[in-house]
Write a structure and sequence with these properties.
- A two-stranded antiparallel sheet has the order 1-2.
- The chain is mainly alpha-helical.
- It has helices at 20-39, 54-72, 92-97, 100-124, 128-150, 174-194, 196-199; strands at residues 83-86, 168-171.
- It has a single domain (20-199), classed as Growth Hormone, Chain: A.
- Helices cover 58% and strands 4% of the residues.
């Protein structure tokens, strides 16, 4: 279980986030790189653009912005019910014993859980500024799923219920949810996308 944190009132307005064009740039960049490399002549398979982790780093930065907005949010920022989220702690001995498919499925199930949890937060919160950050976070999760498919990782089939998944826990506050979101991107998502096998590509 992660540490619970309670934040006191703040008289400043919530973080507003980036301009729309700035928020869309990394998603557009990832999409264009995927399309261009699929259509580029002379390459047997598409270049894997996420191996340049600047796109993921941008998503992490935006997740941290959402967490900062939550810290400064005073009203209309609560989670209406507890949600199931992925464990973010990485046991490297256990992780390295898993094959590529098992690692990918663990990350994909975590992304799915976070998308469900953030969607619930979106429906329960009423703060407009926080809505903007949540919408952006959900779009980023969808972009990450598209990137995983571009790496020839098979599409994930969600379970009928989150209770069927292992390696999960429950949080009851929006602050804890957004902290899990940041840590999951910085941990297991980065590990998967930095893997030498996933990123290997001969571009000579």
């Amino acid at each position: 279980m992660g540490n619970r944190r309670t934040y006191g009132p703040n008289r400043e307005d919530p973080v507003k986030g980036y301009a729309d064009t700035d928020m869309e740039f990394p998603r557009l960049l990832a999409f264009l790189l995927i399309v261009l490399e699929w259509t580029r002549p002379g390459l047997p398979s598409p270049l894997r653009p996420i191996c340049d982790l600047r796109v993921l780093n941008h998503f992490i930065k935006e997740a941290q912005d959402a967490e900062a907005a939550m810290k400064s949010c005073r009203d209309g920022c609560s989670l209406s019910d507890s949600v199931t989220v992925p464990q973010t702690r990485v046991d490297f001995d256990v992780w390295e014993k898993k094959n590529a498919l098992e690692q990918a499925q663990e990350v994909q199930s975590g992304l799915w859980l976070l998308q469900q949890a953030l969607s619930l937060l979106r429906s329960s919160a009423t703060n407009a500024a926080l809505h903007s950050h949540i919408d952006n976070s959900i779009r980023n999760l969808l972009s990450l799923n598209a990137v995983l498919r571009s790496l020839n990782i098979q599409e994930y089939t969600p379970p009928a219920s989150a209770a069927e998944l292992e390696g999960t826990w429950t949080v009851s506050t929006a602050a804890d949810l957004l902290q899990v979101y940041v840590n999951f991107l910085r941990g297991k998502v980065r590990l998967l996308l930095s893997d030498a096998q996933a990123c290997h590509q001969d571009v000579s």
